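User: Need the bound-state model for nicotinamide-adenine-dinucleotide:
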Amino acid sequence: MSTNGRLKNVVAIVTGGGSGFGESICHTFADEGGKIVVADISVENGERVTKDLLAKGHEAVFCRVDVAKSAEMGAMVKAALARFGRIDVMVNNAGMSHPNQPMLNVTEEFFDRLYQVNVKSIYLSAVHCVPVFRKQGSGSFINIGSTASVRPRPGLSWYNGSKGAVTMITKSLAVELAPEKIRANQINPSIADTPLLTTFMGAADTPEARARFVASIPLGRLCRPTDVANAALFFADPASEFVTGVCMEVDGGRCV
Ligand SMILES: NC(=O)c1ccc[n+]([C@@H]2O[C@H](COP(=O)([O-])OP(=O)(O)OC[C@H]3O[C@@H](n4cnc5c(N)ncnc54)[C@H](O)[C@@H]3O)[C@@H](O)[C@H]2O)c1
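Assistant: Bound-state model below.
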């Protein structure tokens, strides 16, 4: 745990904060003095992470949200303002995938939900956060994309497309909102050991299956949640105030 205070008094909402990358982002930000809204559809996971943060003496609050629902995203932003008085960083991390499979096996219903959770959520975060950021004269979006945004794996076609959309939205937010001192950046992680791992593999999580993925990563290991959290810390840190529109791979060289 660092005590540098790089995020002293910075208020951050982290969607999908109850697990995986989001959980690590919550801890890393809080360890640097950030005040955290742990936002998740899972009450159990979100409350667990919030409890852990409070136990470390951090300022944190849980908010149950489905990022695909406008009313719930609006209520989350209101709750953050009621608790902390401002919002500096909106981390759009919550996401899902279809299991690795031939593209035509994914149902229309699943496709719609995938795009609601992975893509519409970013639109909704803009709808509800941009007015707050405008009023404050500052604010920052950090969107979690994927190496799938850049370099698609077969069997994940619609997931790949959703993450490609996130990239263009990140860049669009960056150019359109820059005159108002609102930033948007993106992190593209490679495959990591979180609950999503077996979905991406589309097969049992065996040492052989892992070895196949690791073989495609030049630095020779899976991504860790702390890799993503440390990159997010850079974008959240006021020291990166001149950085916007960047979509950064955190992938051990996978996309080179
Ligand atoms: N794990 C990987 O290999 C990997 C690689 C690249 C990108 N990503 C991306 O990173 C992000 C986080 O993934 P993770 O691996 O930490 O996953 P995870 O499954 O560990 O965590 C995702 C969290 O999001 C929450 N969530 C899901 N749907 C939600 C919704 N509609 N509203 C609110 N919360 C919701 C879940 O409850 C869970 O707590 C996702 O956007 C994912 O696409 C993951």
